[in-house]
Amino acid sequence: MDTVLLSDLERFYLVQGVEVGCRMDGRGPSEYRPLEIETNILSHATGSASIRIGETFIVCCVKMEVGKPSLTNTSEGRIEINVECYPTATHRCNEKAASELEERLKTTLQSAYQLKFIDLSPLCIQRGRQCWVIYIDLLILEGAGNLLDASSLVVKAALLNATQSNSLLLSVFQNNSESLEAGVQQFHGDMLPLFITVHKIGKAYLIDASKEEEACSLSRLSLVIYPDGSIGSLEQDGCCSCQLESIVEMSQLASIVGKKLNHALVKTLELERQLRS
Amino acid sequence: MYPAIAAPERHSVDYVSQGQPEGPSIQQGSAVVPGEIVFSSVASLITGHGTYRSVDASSTNIGEDLSSAVNPDTLASVNGDPGIQAGNIHTSLTGRVRIVNKLVYVEPPKARYFGNVGDTVVGRIVEVEQRRWRVDVNSALLANLALANVKLPGGELRRKSEDDERAMRSFMKEGDLIVAEVHEVYKDGTLQLHMPGTRTGKLGGGCLLRIPPSLIKRQKIHRHRLAIPRMDTLDGPITISNEVISVGLILGCNGYIWTGPARAMDIGLGLSAPVEADLNTANESELLAERIAVCRVRNCILALTHNGMPVWETSVLTACEASWSADQQNDDDDDEYQLEFETSINNDSSGSKSRNRIARLLHPEVARRLVTLVQAKLKSDY
Fold first, then answer.
1. Where is the RRP4 S1 domain (chain B) (predicted)?
2. Per-domain boundaries in chain B
3. Residues in chain B within 8 Å Cβ distance of A14
4. pLDDT of B237-286, one tens digit each?
């Protein structure tokens, strides 16, 4: 992986600080760096958003076009996610590291949007012939750690921004009560997922790791969290394994943080929409 | 993003009044862009870094040259060299003009470190070659640290042999942080480093910050030991005590700043492996208090940098004192504080919002307010 170069003493200092409870910049284990989200930044796109977490900077653009449906789901629309990464966003500043990062992010984000909670059948125009295709383009301009969480946040913000200007997307991303059964508890709002990555450093678990903390992390767990706190798919990465108790604790931590992050994101976008109108 | 603050005016002989062009005059500290004419051709000034003279070969000179060849007896009446005359002084960089007697140069606000002999630099070793280490010091090329210029562990003074060449990775390996001095600057821009005396060597555990080299004020002493007020928890109530914690700070002239416990600054001097056995006896509250002090220094330096303030010992200390005073003040104003960070995301088991005093320095508005306080305090002191 593309990590920064650290000395052994710096790693020891960082791991010791994480276990004591104070990170390199004074944050707690489950604190985010200052987050800035801005929507509606591109006038020619259906929805757009940009995000800054610390020094990580990602721009997302959502466009809708008429295209052909896939062969396996002829009565549904499609979501295509493409990731473009500047070489300067990686540590080694070359094309090869940027391409590896693009492929990993593209496959990970695409897998989170292939689930049953997103109803793509209203995007169908003519079965087997025409449908709406949602193109999501991500541009990573600066990388300072935690790219997966920032990417999922900016994709969700851009899709929510697209929902405001396009009423067709309301039935796709909002949870309609008619489609659910009467006995199931109804959750009002969107069901767009978020990624929460938990890093295991020493004996502690971290949220929103910076570049130095990613270099010291032996194992990390990326979870798909829905707005009601439920957990979707899990992806474990790193050069070490995890015990089952660690995975359970990391999942619980990610569920709590993801629920609060979802709530903060929706509330912030609602405040922004009120300020614009 | 990093505007360079103009240096105070220097009183020197006024060599520049003889070559003033029309329009607004160029003074000490004026902002220039590439291609701008700062002085005309009659000014007897020397171009430096970021300035150049354009070659002025007009047709009148060619005519004069032909006249001189035809009439040899009128050669004495021609002033100077008849072929080429000195042109105007242009700038080739964006920055501020500095005039030192007859030297005119430009200081760019954001540039790589180009090296001065005798500067203290903080670097990271990226390669180990046969007889030298390659060090990243934020310059255009990697710097060299020869084996002959490095003290042996234990301070032994002898010539280096092949055994020392084979043991180079045990002295310093890839990723290690060092503090060294610039010994020589080669013609191609490569820096040769050396480690004299007891003030240089390998650094222990701490934080490394990268800021533009123009924001570090040049001083005689670049190693400092700051006394930071003690704080035991990140978000609990403040217990006022008179204890202070010693934090080490090394301001490298190349823009790399190292900050960490003062113990780690002293352990790494002798190039030996730092002894971590005494850390086992220290309890967790001592480690946490020491780490909070280091994080406060780190976040204060970042706040100064992001708002264009130069970094030196007095400004860092003033920023730490201002942030510590703001912590005491913010505990009294709970309602105003919670309103500012309404959307903060904290995993808090209790119902109240936790307030992290060190991490809030990362917010842009808190950093801007802190730098305003620092500037006001420094201005009142001077």
1. 112-184
2. 11-54+86-108, 110-203, 206-381
3. 205
4. 666 666 788 899 999 999 999 989 887 776 554 444 444 444 545 667 87
A interface mutation test: which of B125, B272, B324, B343 has the most A CBs within 10 A? B343
Task: Let me know if the fold of B11-54+86-108 is the same as that of B110-203.
Answer: yes
Instruction: Name the residue ranges covered by the structural domains of chain A.
Output: 8-166+184-276
Q: Do A5 and B175 touch (CB under 8 A)?
A: yes
DSSP H or E stretch at residue B277: helix B277-281
Class of domain A8-166+184-276: alpha beta
**Per-position pLDDT tens, chain A of length 277:** 457 888 888 888 889 898 888 888 888 888 888 888 888 888 879 899 999 888 899 999 998 888 989 888 788 888 889 898 988 887 667 777 888 888 878 888 888 887 666 778 888 888 787 898 999 999 899 888 888 999 998 999 998 888 877 776 666 665 544 444 444 433 446 678 889 999 888 889 988 899 888 898 888 889 898 888 888 888 888 888 888 888 998 998 999 899 888 889 888 887 887 887 7
d(CA A170, CA A175): 9
B142 touches chain A (CB under 8 A): no
Taking CA atoms, B304 is separated from B112, B121, B206, in Å, by: 19, 20, 19
How far is residue B222's CA from residue B311's CA, in Å, rounded to a whole number? 11
Rounded to 5°, angle at Cα B3 from B2 and B7: 130
Q: Given this structure, which CATH class describes domain B11-54+86-108?
A: mainly beta
- C-alpha torsion angle, residues A164, A168, A174, A177 (rounded to 10): 130
Min Cα separation B263/chain A (Å)? 12
Cβ contact, residue pair B299, A26, below 8 Å: yes
Residues of A in contact with B287 (CB under 8 A): 16-17, 20
- Confidence check on the interface: ipTM exceeds 0.85, yes or no: yes
Check: CB of residue B248 under 8 Å from CB of residue B309. no
With CA atoms as reference, report the closest residue to A114 among A77, A167, A68, A147: A77
Residues from A in contact with B at Cβ < 8 Å: 5-10, 12-14, 16-17, 20-35, 54, 207, 253, 256-257, 260-261, 264, 267-268
